[in-house]
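Contributing: when you submit paired examples, paste them exactly as shown. First protein:
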Amino acid sequence: MPAFTIPELPAESKALLEQVVPPPNQPPLLYLAMGANPRVLEGYARGPILGLHGLLHTGQLDPADRELVILRVTGRCGAEHEWGVHVAYFGKTSGLTPSQVAATVTNDAPEPGWTPHQGAIITIADAVADRRALTDEQDAQVRQQLTDAERVEFLAVASLYLGISALCQVLEIPAEPGAPTFPTGAG
């Protein structure tokens, strides 16, 4: 397979990237790849995730919980680029321990262990990553730990990151330079 190359970016994409990731910061490789099509990049940047009212900015989910669902979906789907970007940019503020972050990919028992609330989030993330319904037992576990509003938002965030994981896979986006990579033996 050919090595990943950054596409030629139209001026419109360059301007939008400067708004989303102001210099001197560098846009992630995924953003650069999407920049080949300014309309797709704009839809992503202004839309359901990064937009002012996007799911990363609603403030409805605890940041640690939001990052847990994102890390689990991207880890389970083998999207090392997106997983590493989230560990690098949000990992230190997420409240997740290094062992918990690694467990989002390896499925090892983390220290400290998952709380019942975190277990419900992982159950949702795994169902989305596997593209399957929850079992009756899993549904009961989730409903015991999460409100209906939280459940729907976790499903929405997980589903968006399933799509982002697919973009990373199909476009063969490598690990972001300087960002963490999957734990040894994972992915």
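Second protein:
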Amino acid sequence: MPDPSSKPYRVGRSKTGLGLFATEPIKKGTKIIRYFGPMLDCNKKKDDAVENKYLFQISKRWTVDGSVRKNIARYINHSCKPNAESDVSVRKRKIMIRAIKNIEPGEEINYDYGTEYFKEYLKPIGCKCDACEKKRLKKAAEARAEKKQDKQKAKGKADKSKDKEAAKSKAKAGKPKAEKVKADKVKSSKADMKSAKAKSAKAGAKASKAKASKTQPKSAKPKSGKAAA
């Protein structure tokens, strides 16, 4: 195998452990590295019993065991939105990793491991590729925003209920006063009526007295002169 240091990639620390990173620009369509290892015949019990995370099946019969240390391509991590892909030649039993996007220096090289691998190894622990991390962060931000909105709504309802109760209490406190004012008005009205009646009765009595005085006959006074014989 060629010296990896002469290639446009390096092994480096990734968020999921180790990964393969570009050391120079890699154009779309470029064959980056070969994925290789012992060839396992799935028709043989011994080969079919081999289990590890680096098995790459190229046909129903043949699988590449990529767990060997010299297989630098085994450091390439999975991504749901990759910048490379596996180019498999079943006839030659050969696997090449090829760029499907322009890859910049320092950018991690990744490809999609496939549905079966994802379900068996990645889904139980949660995929940590950039696409899934961004999706999780977006969902978390949306959940926080929704929680904050619900909290504000609940606070608004509580404040509204509080204001309503305060208004009720205020109305309740002001009611006796209004009744008192009404009672005072009724009392005053009754007093005014009583006074008016008294005045009317007094005026009537005075008028009756004046009328009686006017109709009473005058006392007869004797005329001056001789007395009757």
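If you have annotations for the second protein, write them as plain sentences, like these:
The radius of gyration is 55 Å.
The domain at 4-126 is CATH 2.170.270.10 (Beta-clip-like).
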